[in-house]
Amino acid sequence: CAGPPKRITISSVEEGEGPRILAVIAHPDDESAFAGAVFASAIEHGSAVDVLCITNGEGGFKYSTLAERIYGEELTQEQVGRAELPAIREAELTRALGWLGVRRLLLLLQTDHRYTTDLAEVMPSAPAESGPWDLPFVRQELRALLLEEDYDLVLALAPTPTTHAHHQAATL
Hints:
By secondary structure, the protein is of the alpha/beta class.
């Protein structure tokens, strides 16, 4: 874990009559999976939409070729990407959520260690084993958020065995 959770207020738009929604995502950019629903809910129906993002996204360094030109960094080199991508992806996510009308972002800053479909790698079944995330911390923060807010709906990606284990774990 990179530190305590980070709360960012995105929009100060007053809450309307729509349902209160929490979107739980594993990585910055996963919000795009339900961007249309979030936008319609927040903008057209007056929903209060919050996003909880579990990782800081540094594991995407392998896929950052196009971003290297934009940011002037060799982001596909692991050491550079892992150091620079968390701030880049947080800024991109915050900007995108603003366009979608999201109210708040909660970042849990957990390690985005690598792509895998092995759920046990992210959520070990044996208590003595550790994965890339501080699972008690993630569960505690999610529980506190669900108790603090009275959400009507929680959005998450379908946890199928063939999808990224971070997506599976975020939903489970």
